[in-house]
C-alpha cells in the first residue's frame, strides 16, 4: 500500500484537495529499496470539444468526430490498465471550456472510476480551458484522483513508490506568469515529476500562457517534466526529459498526424524510457500531391489514389479525415481550376474505393500553376480577362466597388456559407481576392468552349 502525502510548502486547500484513501501499488517492481514503475503522460484531452460547423462539410462523419475525444480517453484508460501503470498524469485542458451539460463531467468520472478500481492514481492540473469551466469547481472527483491547487504549487509524495509529483493549476483562462519559477525543490530520494500547463519557450499556434525557459525547468532538478498546452508532440530536452505529449485526439486539420500519449518506464536507476502510444480514433491527414508529375487528369487521379492508399495503410484501421492538396507546375492546371466540381467528385470516389468507407475527404485545395514557358492568353477577350483580374487583385478599391453587384447574391447564400473560418466573403475585398485565382481558368475554359462541364 502507498499513501499520498503533501509537503508543508503548499498543503492543498479543502476546495482543491481531491484525493482519496490509499490504493494498492500497481505497475511497480521493487529492487531492494528502489522501484521500477510506469506512468502515462497525457494532455489536452478537450473532452467533448464542440467542433462547430462540421455539418457544412459534405459527407462529414460529424457524430464520429464529435465522439472521438471520449473514445480517445477510453483508450487512454484501457492502455493504463493494460500496461499496469502506477499513475496517470494529465497536464491540463481536460475539458474544452464550459460544458453543454453534466454528461461531460459524468463521463470523465466514469473513466476515472475504472482507473480507481484498477488501483491507478491520477494527477492533473487545470489549464486555460479548464480554468474557464466554472462547473468543474463543483465536481467531486473519485478517490485516487488529485487536482492540484491554482493558488500555489503543491507536491504529492507516493512514499512506497519513491515518487514526488509537483503541480499547479491555472487560476484563470489567461495566465502570463512563469508558474515554473515557484515550483519547489526536488524531494530527496524520490523520482521527481513536474506537471505543468505552459507554452514553454513559445509556439506560433498557441497563446503564450505560463511561459518558461528550459533553464528554469532544468534548474528545478526534476527527473521528468510532463507538459501540456502545445498540441504537437515535442521533446524539448532529454536530460532531464522535458516533453509535450501533444493532444490525445486531433480535432481538425491543423491537428494532423498521430495523436496520443507517452508511456514512460522508469528503471530502477531512475532513467526514463518514454514511448509514444497513438490513441486517436479518427486521424486528420494532409495528402500533398505534386501535380507536376502527371500529364493528364487520369494520371493525377492515380497519384492521388496511391497517396490515399499510403495514408490508409498507416492508419491502423482508423477513420481518416484527409485534406487533399494539389501543388506544383502542372500541365493540367487549367483543367483542374475549371473542373472543380468534377474533380471533387472524382477524388471522393477514389477515397471510397481505396478506403472502403474509412476515408473522408475534408477538402480539396488546388494550388497549382501553369508550366513555365506556357504561352499566355495574349489575344482577344482572354487577354482582356487576364488583365482585368490582375487589376482587381492589386486594387482593393475596384474590388470594393463590386460590393453592390454581389449584395443580392450574398443575401441569398445559406447561413453556413457565411460563417466560420472557411466562409465565403463576397462583401470583403480580402475575401474576394483568393477567389480570383479560380475565376480565370473557369471563364477561360468557358470562352474557349472546353472544360465547360462542372
Which descriptors apply to this entry?
23% strand; alpha/beta; single chain; 7-stranded mixed sheet; elongated
Question: Describe it for me?
Answer:
- The chain starts with a strand and ends in a 6-residue tail after the last helix.
- The chain has helices at 62-66, 68-82, 103-117, 128-131, 214-219, 297-314, 333-338, 340-355, 380-394, 396-401, 403-412, 429-432, 436-448, and strands spanning 4-6, 28-31, 34-42, 87-91, 121-125, 145-147, 154-158, 163-167, 191-197, 224-228, 234-238, 241-244, 260-266, 272-278, 282-290, 319-329, 359-369.
- The chain has 454 residues and is an alpha/beta fold.
- It folds into 3 domains: 4-278, Purple Acid Phosphatase, chain A, domain 2, CATH 3.60.21.10; 282-374, no CATH class; 380-454, no CATH class.
- Helix 4 links the parallel strand 5 and strand 6 (145-147).
- Helix 2 packs parallel to helix 3, helix 6 runs parallel beside helix 8 (340-355) and helix 9 runs antiparallel to helix 13 (436-448).
- The chain has a 7-stranded mixed β-sheet, with no helix packed on it. Strands 2, 3, 4, 5, 6, 13 and 14 form a 7-stranded mixed β-sheet that branches.
- The chain is 29% helix and 23% strand.
- It has 13 helices and 17 strands.
How much is the radius of gyration in Å?
Answer: 27 Å
Shape label: elongated
The stretches of 5 or more residues where confidence is low (pLDDT under 50) are 1-22
Mean pLDDT: 82
Strand order of the largest sheet: 1-7-8-9-10-12-11
